[in-house]
């Protein structure tokens, strides 16, 4: 499950930043998410990023991600995993549920930060 976060964020940031190398992406990814630059990713920072990412992906601003909107970031299998009620849209609550689950799964020692 840990990978799911990085699928979303890495794919999103790769398209947003046009990173030329993986190392560059990794650095930009961390800088973009770690707002206070302490080297840890808190839940607040993660939530702020995930909100920003959702808004950026929701091109028609209707509050859901259709397959066309999600396509640059998620393959069909990933899309179906997040689309829990199988209506072919990722609602904000489905997205948040996935992101929260991913954060919880990635926070292995349960201290509320990813490091
Ligand atoms: Ca931080
Ligand atoms: Ca939309
Ligand atoms: Ca749905």
UniProtKB/TrEMBL annotation:
Residues 1-19 form the signal peptide. Residues 45-80 form the EF-hand domain. InterPro entries: EF-hand-dom_pair (IPR011992), EF_hand_dom (IPR002048). GO terms for molecular function: calcium ion binding. Keywords: Signal. The keyword Zinc does not apply. Pfam families: EF-hand_5. PROSITE patterns: EF_HAND_2. Coiled coil: none annotated. This is EF-hand domain-containing protein.
């Amino acid at each position: 499950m840990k990978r799911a976060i990085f699928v979303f964020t890495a794919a999103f940031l790769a398209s947003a930043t046009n990173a030329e190398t993986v190392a560059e992406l990794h650095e930009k990814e961390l800088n973009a998410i770690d707002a206070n630059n302490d080297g840890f990713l808190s839940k607040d920072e993660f939530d702020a990023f995930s909100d920003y990412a959702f808004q950026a992906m929701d091109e028609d601003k209707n509050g859901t991600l259709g397959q066309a909107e999600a396509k640059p970031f998620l393959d069909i299998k990933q899309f179906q995993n997040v689309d829990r009620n199988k209506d072919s849209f990722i609602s904000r609550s489905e997205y948040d549920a996935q992101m929260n689950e991913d954060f919880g799964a990635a926070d292995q020692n349960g201290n509320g930060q990813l490091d």
